[in-house]
Every structure is written in structure tokens, then in C-alpha cells.
Amino acid sequence: MKDSRRTTTVSNSIAILEAVADRGAGVTAREIADHLGMAPATAYRLLNSLVAEEYLVRTADLRGFALGARLRGFAAAVNTPVLSSAARALLDDFRASTRFAVHLMNFRPAAVQVISEDPDHPIPAERELSRHLHASAAGKLLLSSHTEWRALVGNPPRIAPRTKIDHPALADDLRSVRDSGYARAADELVAGIACLALPLYNALGTLAGALCLSGPSNRLPVLETHRDPARDCAARLAPLLY
Q1: CB 140 within 8 A of CB 174
Q2: How far apart are CA 218 and CA 187, in angstroms?
Q3: What InterPro entries does its record include (predicted)?
Q4: pLDDT at residue 4, as a whole number
């Protein structure tokens, strides 16, 4: 009986670590419990044990969790594609061709990971970008590949003035993403900022990341004129990364 309980504890602990890795830094105990269908008391107990063992750490606001020192390097090595010199040169050339911000994202099963931030245009809300998939172009692109996207977003919070928080509106957006082959968002993650996300596919044809083009939302029509060059750059980047 004791061995059975130990096996369950180990399995649940691994599931929690996977949930934190997938959903990104800042995920809360309640979100983890809901995501795993785990009793909140069990989740809290295991989270505290994992923090004590340094597998997890609490975020600065003490409300969420992130991978700890004992796992962070391993997770980064496993999950993050290497930005080769050829990929970096291609990305630099594209950045030089536009005045808009150009960011490169990698997709985890339930989170967006920044792997190359435009050095001249820092991302203003990186934590929100990685955690609230419904509010960004990159997040919508990722959600569009999930049939169970409603379970991933849950009851989405309003992040900016035009954030869509009801499922029917989000469903319309994701349908548009699948039809058009790219995602866009304006004033949804940060007021005054618009973004386009062009897909990166791995060798198996699976969505693996995004090339994002971002600028002032009042210049969205101009931003859209860069969509095809960005799509071409994404297609050339993908085999260098995945």
C-alpha cells in the first residue's frame, strides 16, 4: 500500500512539473489543480514539497510558480531550439528591412516562449504573453492548433481594452486564424500595440513556433503590408530551427 501511495505521489509530482513547464512561469496552484483535475489540497501539498526541493520556485508576487534551479537548465536545453548563426543572420536581415518589432517565439504545448526578442523593441508584456494565450497574436496562433482550446484558456481575463474574453468571440478569431494561416491582435495584450504572428512548422508539418511582427495599433494597415515578407521569412527560418 505504501509503495502504491509513493507511486501516485511521484506521478502527480511529475504531472505538476510538466504543467508548470507547459503553461509557463507564473502559473498558479489553482490553475495547476484545475488543469490536472487534481484536488487543490493535493496540489498545494506537492507544490510546497517541490519548492522545498528546489524543483520549483515561487514567482516574485508569491502567487505563481516557475521551474526551479534543479530543472531550469534541463528544460531549456530540451525545449528551446538553437538559434544558429544562419537563423540569426536571416532574422537580423528581416529586422533591418522593417521599422516594426520582430520577435521569434517557440511553442510549448500550452505556452509561448520568447527565443529572440527584438533588441531595439523590447516586448512590453512578456509575462502576460507567455501566460494569457487568448490575448496575443502568437497565443491565438497556438490555440488555433488545439481542438481543446477552451480548456486551455478557461475563463480568460481582460488584459487590455480590446481583449476578447468570451469563448464565442475567441472561436471566431481562431476560425479566422485557421482560414488565413496567420493571427493578429490589436489592443488585446497591450493598449496601443498590434501584432501579427506567422507560423513556423517543424519537419513533420506540426506548428512549432511563430515569427511575430509588432507595432503601434494605429499603424495596423501598414503592419499588414509586411505580412507576406514575414511569412516568407518564417518559412525560411523554420528548417533552421526545427
Answers
A1: yes
A2: 10
A3: GAF-like_dom_sf, HTH_MetabolicPath_Reg, Tscrpt_reg_IclR_C, Tscrpt_reg_IclR_N, WH-like_DNA-bd_sf, WH_DNA-bd_sf
A4: 54
Per-residue model confidence as pLDDT tens digits over 206-216: 999 999 999 99
Sheet holding 111-116, edge to edge: 111-116, 101-108, 207-216, 193-201, 183-186
**Residues whose CB falls within 8 Å of the CB of residue 105, separated by 6 or more in sequence, listed in order:** 112, 113, 114, 115, 138, 197, 209, 210, 211, 212
Phi, psi values for residue 214, rounded to 5°: -135, 145
The confidence score (pLDDT) of residue 66 equals 84
Please, are residues 238 and 202 in contact by the beta-carbon 8 Å criterion?
yes
Q: Count the neighbouring beta carbons within 10 Å of the beta carbon of residue 149.
A: 19
Distance CA 241, CA 86 (A): 10
- Please state, in angstroms and rounded to a whole number, the distance separating the CA atoms of residues 207 and 214: 20
- Ordered by where they begin, the domains of the chain are 2-76 (1.10.10.10), 80-241 (3.30.450.40)
* pTM for the full predicted model: 0.74
